[in-house]
Specification:
The complex is a heterodimer.
Chain A (H helix, E strand, L loop, with lengths): L8 E4 L5 E6 L11 E6 L6 E4 L13 E6 L2 E6 L8 E8 L6 E3 L3 E5 L1
Parallel strand pairs in A: 1-9
Antiparallel strand pairs in A: 2-6, 3-4, 3-7, 5-6, 7-8, 7-9
Chain B lengths: L2 E5 L2 E3 L5 E8 L8 E6 L5 E7 L6 E3 L7 E6 L4 E6 L8 E8 L8 E4 L3 E5 L2
Parallel strand pairs in B: 2-11
Antiparallel strand pairs in B: 1-3, 3-8, 4-5, 4-9, 5-6, 7-8, 9-10, 9-11
The chains are: A mainly beta, B mainly beta.
């Protein structure tokens, strides 16, 4: 099964808001609310930012929010900060034999 | 402190085997589903396998099915990944991760630091 589709890169200036999209199919994002988002800085393990489409784990800033419409999920980061510069991955439960599928990743640059 | 610590990575020849371990601490290990996720050099995250809380149910990515086996020892609070018939394309950093909710695949909130597996002759 192919990975979920994310833009390769996005950028924004400090204080601005950006949105990263994650497009799947009716076998994954479109049918299940088990969509999660991860932040990964170079050389570090991923960090969970959003789970079940829009839930934030304890300790994650409320500048991070998630949503879903049809086969596309989105991560919005408001009030961009320099430390937000990282790679971001979406993931979804899937009804195929793969069970869990990730997006290809999006590199966020804070200008 | 919630913690996962992987070990067992290394250099192995194509066709060889390796067993990864992931030691958990700071939470009730037996209460959570667990996953293995890998990341090839310079590439994105790829889900590999998951196991339910008592070890009775497992799932695998198609790319490793029949070659890898996930297991757990709840008494030792340890997750394992037995990797056989290794290929060059299995070269990656392997992470173990805990599912954020006790059951299901909702997201992974605790990650290890990763262990590197290199398959090369």
């Amino acid at each position: 099964q192919s990975a979920l589709t994310q833009p390769a890169s996005v950028s924004g200036s400090p204080g601005q808001s950006i949105t990263i999209s994650c497009t799947g199919t009716s076998s994954d994002v479109g049918s299940y609310n088990q969509v999660s988002w991860y932040q990964q800085h170079p050389g570090k393990a991923p960090k969970l930012m959003i789970y079940d489409v829009s839930n934030r784990p304890s300790g994650v800033s409320n500048r991070f929010s998630g949503s879903k419409s049809g086969n596309t999920a989105s991560l919005t980061i408001s009030g961009l900060q320099a430390e937000d510069e990282a790679d971001y991955y979406c993931s979804s439960y899937t009804s195929t034999s793969t069970l869990v599928i990730f997006g290809g990743g999006t590199k966020l640059t804070v200008l | 402190e919630l913690q996962l610590v992987e070990s067992g990575g290394g250099l192995v020849q194509p066709g060889g085997s390796l067993r990864l371990s992931c030691a958990a601490s700071g939470f009730t290990f037996s209460g959570y589903w667990m996953h293995w996720v890998r990341q090839a050099p310079g590439k994105g995250l790829v889900w590999v396998s998951r196991i339910n809380s008592d070890g009775s149910s497992t799932s695998y990515a198609d790319s490793v099915k029949g070659r890898f086996t996930i297991s757990r020892d709840n008494a030792k609070k340890t997750l394992y990944l037995q990797m056989n018939s290794l290929r060059a394309e299995d070269t990656a950093v392997y992470y173990c991760a805990r599912d954020v909710l006790a059951a299901g695949s909702h997201g992974m909130d605790v990650w290890g630091q990763g262990t590197t597996v290199t398959v090369s002759s």
